[in-house]
Amino acid sequence: MKQTSREFTKGKFCVYCGCSHPLLLTVDHIVPKSKGGKDIDSNKQVCCYICNLFKGTLSDKEYKAYYKNMVALYGIGRIKLSIGNISLKLTGTDNLTPGKGIK
Ligand SMILES: [Zn+2]
User: Fold this and answer.
1) Are 59 and 36 in contact (CB under 8 A)?
2) Is 10 within the bounds of a domain?
3) CA 36 to ligand 1 center in whole angstroms
4) Closest of 26, 22, 18, 82 to residue 52, by C-alpha
5) For 54-77, what is each residue's pLDDT tens digit?
6) What CATH number does residue 43 fall under?
């Protein structure tokens, strides 16, 4: 039986920024499908919606380099904090810690 993306991301966190909010986690293809990557588990990793958006069609290696530059140049960590704020609004609970998900 095929795993749903919710099952695949359960209890995991974004491999790039560490975000672990279940509503923000997506299944990402290490080698993008647009570059011939296959839809198999060994080509999948967990990545948050924001990183997935920034990553676009970049490969894992390319996005890691891009992310490092973003951290150095713009302090992308602030985006991570704003993800936490969005999560608070979405769930209406005080049990969230930015970057750590639901307790
Ligand atoms: Zn992320």
Assistant:
1) no
2) yes
3) 23
4) 26
5) 888 888 888 888 888 877 776 555
6) 1.10.30
Between the CA of 2 and the centroid of ligand 1 the distance, in Å, is: 24
Q: Would you place residue 27 in the very low, low, confident or very high pLDDT band (cuts 50, 70, 90)?
A: very high
Mean pLDDT score, 72-84: 54
Whether residue 50 is predicted with pLDDT greater than 60 in this model: the reply is yes
Q: How much is the pTM?
A: 0.66
* Spacing, Cα 96 to ligand 1 middle (Å): 16
Amino acid at 100: K
- Cα(17) to centroid(ligand 1), Å: 4
CB–CB of 51/18 below 8 Å? no
Question: Distance from the CA of 51 to the center of ligand 1, in angstroms?
Answer: 4
Cα of 13 to ligand 1 centre, how many Å? 8
Q: Provide the domain count of the chain.
A: 1
